[in-house]
Structures are given as C-alpha cells and as structure tokens.
Design a protein that fits this description.
Blueprint: E1 5-6, H1 9-31, E2 36-42, H2 46-61, E3 65-71, H3 77-89, E4 95-98, H4 108-114, H5 126-133, H6 142-154, E5 162-166, H7 173-182, E6 186-190, H8 197-202, E7 206-209, E8 227-230, E9 234-238, E10 241-245, H9 250-253, E11 259-260, H10 268-286
Parallel strand pairs: 1-11, 2-3, 2-4, 5-6, 5-7, 7-8, 8-11
Antiparallel strand pairs: 9-10
This protein binds guanine.
Guanine is lined by residues 97-100, 122, 142-143, 171, 271.
Length: 298
C-alpha cells in the first residue's frame, strides 16, 4: 500500500489567510492605511461571478477594503480602459484585478497592459512577467504562486528533480515553469503539440497538470513517488450528477504518487489566498516595506 499524502488546500489556504490577517493588522498599525483590492468584472459569466463573490468575501475577512466594479457585457474597451486608469490613480487602491475572460469585443492584452504594474496583483502585466523570468522580485500569478507554496511544504529546493508541467497557459503553465526554475528544478512543459506526453510525464518527480482536460493524466503516466499538483477544475456529469474533477485521474494517481492535491479542495482555495498575499505585498511595496515571503513563515 502506497502512503500518498492528499494535501488539504482548504486548510492550508485558511492558515495563509490567517497569517495575512495578522500581517495586515501590523501593516495597518505601522502605516495607518488599510490595503484595498479593486475587482473589475464585466458581464455575467457564471464561473466568474462565483470567483468574484469569494474574492470579495475573503478580502473583507482578512480586514482589507474591497472595491467592486460590475460592468455590463457591452461596456466599450475605451470605457474599461478609463476605469482601470482611475483605479491606477486612486490612492486607496493597492491592487487591481480584472476578471478574465473578458467579452470578445475587448482585447484582454490591451486592458492588462493598462494596469499599473505595481498594482497588478494577478501578475499578468508584461513588466511583471519579464521580472519573474529574470529572477527579480515581482507580483507573481496567484495560482502558480499557490502551487509553489504547496511544493515548498515538501521541498525548499528542487536541485536534481525533474518537473513536468502539462499546459502552456500564461496564467499557470508558463509562470509555474519560471517559479520551478527558481527552485532549481529541471523543467519541461508539454502541450497539445508535444509527442510522447505520456513518456515525458512518466519521468517527472513533480507533475503539474494545468490543461483543462478532465482526468487526462492516467495512473500509468506517473512515476512511483511523484508529487502531483492538479490545477484542473473540470465540471463533468457522472451517474447523472454534476461533479468537479481535475486533469489527473485521482483514483489511479494516489496508488503511485507520494503527494497529490485533490479536486476540489486542493489548488483552488490557494488562488484567492495568494491574491490576498499579493495585495498585501503590493501595499507594502507602495510604502517601501519589504516583501513577505510566506514560505519562510508557514
Ligand atoms: N479567471 C480565471 N482565473 C483568473 C485569475 O487568476 N485572474 C483573473 N483576473 N481572472 C481569472
């Protein structure tokens, strides 16, 4: 029987939020200023509505101010740019998040590029992407940041370890690769055009699945003792019920892996916790205070 650790992301995220609440209190006492996070949501994409509701609730729970802009689906790109510009100049706003996806008539790249990089708590601005790849301090995309904190629970250094990332998105796959390189892993990204995906996955000591295909990674793709981080959140129908599953076939994978994140309750809750961490760090940087590295205190 393999002793696989199923990492409880809900519990870990709750520990992170409680730490952020304490650090936030210290920041408010030091500066007399309460961190503020602005969330901009366009239209009524059902998943976005749930995310945004949770973001606002958890922002308030840690004692930060939440500013919400709900805009109709037909808002123009020009008006959205003007809202972002106002938020860039609003001193009460330290972090800005524009919920994706945006409607088709709006170019997301143009909007993301408008956000002041020092308030870019999603870490999507080209300035922050460049800093991350250069190994400089920057605001880092929340989901890969959460994954790296989970990995750091096991290893602080990945020298000699092989990490394989399934998926090359700007939100997860690419920034995850930069973070793993920073931890000294040898990193491979596989994607829809890669040959022999199964064989490459089988060589991984750390496997990150972020591709959005339900149960794609099978038990036979996994090396014994592998650490698996499953970023996928896929809604499927099973036995007449709607359920959430990851990109990894969990029931098969637990037989050979040494650690795995479940879906739901694994990586998902870490994303908002890391958004709050980024909001705190953006606020601290704006007051010339040092960045908090939570991996050293958890
Ligand atoms: N939509 C899905 N995930 C994310 C995220 O991390 N940030 C933003 N802005 N939109 C998203």
């Amino acid at each position: 029987m393999n002793d696989c650790i199923v990492l409880d992301g809900k519990k870990f995220a709750s520990e992170i939020r409680s730490k952020i609440k304490d650090l936030g209190k210290q920041f408010i006492e030091e500066t007399g200023f309460t961190p503020g996070l602005a969330v901009v949501v366009v239209g009524d994409h059902p998943a976005s509505k749930v995310y945004v509701r949770n973001k606002i609730k958890q922002t308030e729970e840690v004692g930060f101010n939440s500013i919400e802009h709900k805009l109709p689906t037909n808002v123009s790109e020009k008006d959205l740019l003007s809202i972002v510009d106002h938020l860039n100049h609003n001193k009460k706003v330290n972090g800005i998040l524009v919920q994706l996806p945006l409607p088709e008539h709006i170019n997301s790249d143009v909007i993301l590029d408008k956000i002041d990089p020092s308030k870019d708590v999603d870490g999507f601005h080209a300035t922050n992407v460049g800093k991350l790849w250069s190994g400089l301090n920057s605001l880092v995309p929340c989901t890969p940041l959460g994954c790296s904190l989970m990995i750091k629970k096991l290893y602080s250094d990945l020298s000699g370890k092989k990490a394989v990332i399934v998926g090359r998105s700007n939100i997860v796959g690419k920034p995850m690769a930069a973070l793993l390189i920073k931890m000294n892993a040898t990193v491979t990204i596989v994607h829809s055009r890669t040959k022999n995906i199964e064989e490459i996955c089988k060589s991984a000591d750390i496997l990150i699945a972020a591709v959005g295909v339900p149960n794609m990674v099978k038990g036979t793709w996994i090396k014994k003792g592998c650490v698996i981080i499953d970023v996928g959140i896929n809604r499927i129908e099973k036995d007449g019920k709607n359920i959430l599953v990851g990109d990894v076939d969990f029931n098969e994978a637990i037989k050979s892996s040494s650690m795995i994140t479940p879906v739901p309750g694994g990586v998902g809750p870490m994303t908002i916790a890391c958004l709050l961490l980024n909001t705190l760090n953006a606020s601290r940087a704006q007051y010339n205070l040092n960045e908090i590295d939570l991996s050293s205190v958890l």
